[in-house]
TrEMBL record, chain B:
<comment type="subunit">
    <text>Forms a heterodimer with UbiU.</text>
</comment>
<keyword id="KW-0831">Ubiquinone biosynthesis</keyword>
<dbReference type="InterPro" id="IPR043693">
    <property type="entry name" value="UbiV"/>
</dbReference>
<feature type="binding site">
    <location>
        <position position="189"/>
    </location>
    <ligand>
        <name>[4Fe-4S] cluster</name>
    </ligand>
</feature>
<keyword id="KW-0645">Protease</keyword>
<dbReference type="GO" id="GO:0046872">
    <property type="term" value="F:metal ion binding"/>
</dbReference>
<keyword id="KW-0004">4Fe-4S</keyword>
<comment type="similarity">
    <text>Belongs to the peptidase U32 family. UbiV subfamily.</text>
</comment>
<keyword id="KW-0411">Iron-sulfur</keyword>
<feature type="binding site">
    <location>
        <position position="39"/>
    </location>
    <ligand>
        <name>[4Fe-4S] cluster</name>
    </ligand>
</feature>
<keyword id="KW-0408">Iron</keyword>
<dbReference type="GO" id="GO:0006744">
    <property type="term" value="P:ubiquinone biosynthetic process"/>
</dbReference>
<keyword id="KW-0378">Hydrolase</keyword>
<comment type="function">
    <text>Required for O(2)-independent ubiquinone (coenzyme Q) biosynthesis. Together with UbiU, is essential for the C6-hydroxylation reaction in the oxygen-independent ubiquinone biosynthesis pathway.</text>
</comment>
<feature type="binding site">
    <location>
        <position position="176"/>
    </location>
    <ligand>
        <name>[4Fe-4S] cluster</name>
    </ligand>
</feature>
<dbReference type="InterPro" id="IPR051454">
    <property type="entry name" value="RNA/ubiquinone_mod_enzymes"/>
</dbReference>
<comment type="pathway">
    <text>Cofactor biosynthesis; ubiquinone biosynthesis.</text>
</comment>
Length: 362, 298
């Protein structure tokens, strides 16, 4: 019998073999902290500050953070996997964009490489790719990306039945009661976003960037891509444009933010305001006991495009919060003001929201 | 080539909806998609009412399709979805994978793979075909060239439907942007989107129409219009979808029919449609460009 090291979970570290049983396999296991790694330094930072898993992407359009200067080449993935496994942590590889006919083989090759590098799971959105992965690399663990737009247990169970997915990342649209219903009606582990930039639209169902620029998260791995951005200092104030379309204008003293198109100020019936969403970050720290109670298996921190300093700060706070939660079994958990202060420092717009978990947000 | 009327994306008063479909029953349409796809709070017509409208249209010789909601959030959404799958009078358009699962489970083998399923390559499309899809309504953001490549790679063709006219449904959210505009929450929205026949136009701070607020859905402000591109579109699709608008939908349908029957040339038909459009046209998606563009080949 041949045992594939990445299957059985045999990890070589500190000169001895030991059996690594992923913590997520038992029902009572603690929530995993899944942190962003846009670069090798960010990966090491996340792991050093207590991430259970890191997620990353290749340097191409196969993932939804296809930004220049970000992501991993093959040698960096290998080094990142070795670094994580030596510390009993996991590496998840995001291949969560939708391939087309002419570039299909780039995505399947990416899956082959992921399996070869020994990553612990691939995060996919496209059903065709899942079919390929399940057939070609049956030992490779599959996670359904948030870009798959699965918001109900019926949808998630379809991916489970067809491709054997073991985890699904929920779009940021459901209330706590709705998330609880999903968890209760599927065997698939549920991962939710805990912190970071907030997509106000259902992920995987948003063509706003494609409409404005021709490049979309779905097909190009980018939203409001930098090459279409223009900053112009005008007599009316600093103007930010996306492919020529005015996204916002900032008066003197206002901090001009990046023109993510759903977070600009627009005119509706002669009123100028953030018509879709303010520049703000999701922060669900205060919901941790509730998320644990309903059986959430992993919390994802957004921000592969952010610096290692951001990763360090956010990972440190969430690690501390999860450790406190785990030590008390959920009882007596309270959010320390210092945690919120640290997180607000790195929040978009220096503010935060509970998003769809908070009914009035809708 | 068939003409299909897409699902009504706006929230109109009950009688307006009935009048609209009574009028369109006389129009040169082959298929009509019915049902609430945007927001489960909208209840001027409930599923039973839609099925009644469907019977009238079927009696007028139209193929009727019931479209499922694009964003499923609650158990009550799932309940409606199960009822849609269980009815056997009309075909079903699946707009999320939960609908696909229920259709497969029910053994339905003639459903329509809707535009929000994110089918971008032949492998995924083949999976849908193997699961019982017999028509593919293409995501509007897919270009004509990419669409042609998918079709060419299939072992056997599938009837293909292209979004040919209307404000583009670009995004869905848990948040209601219409309620937000009126400083209301979704749970207590007072149904303020009722009677806003074409949604609310969102403009840039320079006054340029950019997007349209339609409850939890965000649309383009411009009207995607492929009348000028029909010769190319015909080669890659068997069905054209026209999305209902507040007024003159029938004139638009008739214009498409005349253009397909070659009673009018593409440029002429496009020019004639301007009279009936709520905003400037665009066609960038079809040409693999930014959707907002109105692209004319040199």
């Amino acid at each position: 019998m041949v045992i594939n090291a990445s299957v059985a979970g045999l990890v070589y570290g500190c000169g001895v073999f030991f059996l690594w049983k992923p913590r997520s396999m038992s029902v009572s296991s603690p929530i995993e902290l899944v942190c962003p790694a846009g670069s090798l330094p960010a990966l090491k930072t996340a792991i050093d500050h207590g991430a259970d898993c890191v997620y990353l992407g290749f340097k191409d359009a196969t993932n939804a953070r296809n930004f220049s200067g970000l992501n991993f080449d093959p040698a960096q993935v290998r080094e990142g996997v070795a670094y994580a496994h030596a510390r009993k942590r996991k590496v998840l590889l995001a291949l969560n964009t939708y391939p087309q006919t002419d570039n299909w083989s780039s995505w399947t090759q990416a899956i082959d490489r992921a399996a070869d590098y020994g990553v612990d799971a691939v995060i996919l959105a496209d059903p065709g790719l899942m079919a390929y992965a399940a057939k070609t690399h049956p030992q490779l663990r599959l996670h359904l990306s948030v870009q798959g737009s699965a918001t109900s247990y019926e949808a998630i169970n379809w991916y489970r039945e067809r491709f054997g997915i073991q985890r699904a990342v929920l779009p940021r649209v459901l209330s706590m009661a709705q998330v609880e219903s999903v968890v209760a009606n599927t065997q698939v582990e549920i991962e939710v976003f805990g912190f970071g930039g907030l997509c106000v639209m259902v992920e995987g169902r948003c063509a706003l960037s494609a409409y404005a620029t021709g490049e979309s998260p779905n097909c190009n791995g980018a939203c409001s891509p930098g090459k279409h951005v223009r900053w112009e200092d005008t007599p009316r104030g600093m103007e930010t444009r996306l492919n020529g379309i005015l996204i916002d204008r900032f008066s003197e003293g206002e901090r001009a933010g990046y023109p993510t198109l759903c977070k600009g100020r627009f005119e509706v019936n002669d009123e100028t305001y953030y018509a879709l969403e303010e520049p703000t970050s999701l922060n669900t720290l205060e919901l941790l006991p509730e998320l644990a109670r309903i059986g959430i298996r992993a919390i994802k921190i957004e921000g592969r495009q952010r610096s290692p300093a951001y990763v360090a700060q956010v990972t440190k706070v969430w690690r501390a919060a999860l450790d406190k939660l785990n030590s008390g079994g959920g009882a007596g958990f309270s959010v320390l003001p210092a945690w919120m202060a640290e997180l607000n420092k790195v929040s978009e717009g220096q503010s935060h929201t509970l998003g769809a978990y908070y009914r009035p947000w809708k | 080539m068939k003409l299909a009327l897409g699902p009504l994306l706006y929230y109109w008063p009950h009688q307006s909806v009935l009048d609209f479909y009574a009028d369109l029953a006389e129009a040169p349409l082959d298929s009509v998609y019915l049902g609430e796809t945007v927001c489960s709070r909208r209840h001027e017509l409930r599923l039973d009412d839609w099925l009644e409208v469907g019977k009238v249209l079927a009696a007028a010789g139209k193929e009727v399709v019931i479209s499922s909601q694009a964003l499923i959030e609650s158990e009550s959404d799932l309940k409606t979805l199960r009822r849609i799958v269980r009815q056997h009078d009309f075909r079903v358009e699946a707009n999320d994978m939960g609908a696909v699962r229920l259709l497969v489970e029910a053994g339905v083998d003639n459903w329509i793979a809707g535009p929000t399923l994110n089918i971008f390559n032949p492998t995924t499309l083949q999976l849908m075909i193997d699961s019982g899809a017999t028509r593919w309504a293409v995501a509007p953001e897919m270009s004509g060239a990419a669409l042609a490549e998918v079709r060419a790679a299939l072992a056997r063709p599938i009837e293909t439907e292209v979004f040919a006219y209307g404000r583009l449904p670009l995004a869905h959210s848990a948040r209601c942007f219409t309620a937000r505009h009126f400083n209301l929450q979704k749970d207590t929205c007072e149904f303020r989107c009722l009677s806003i026949m074409d949604g609310i136009t969102l403009r840039t701070r320079e006054g340029a129409p950019f997007l349209t607020l339609n409850g939890v859905q965000t649309q383009s402000a411009r009207v995607h219009n492929l009348l000028g591109d029909l010769p190319a579109v015909r080669a890659s699709a068997e069905v054209l979808r026209i999305s209902p608008q507040g007024a003159h939908t029938r004139q638009i349908v008739e214009l498409f029919r005349a253009a397909l029957d070659e009673q009018r040339g593409p440029a002429d038909a496009l020019a004639a449609s301007r009279e009936w459009m709520v905003e400037e046209p665009c066609n960038g998606f079809w040409h693999g460009r930014a959707g907002v563009e109105q692209y004319v080949a040199a």
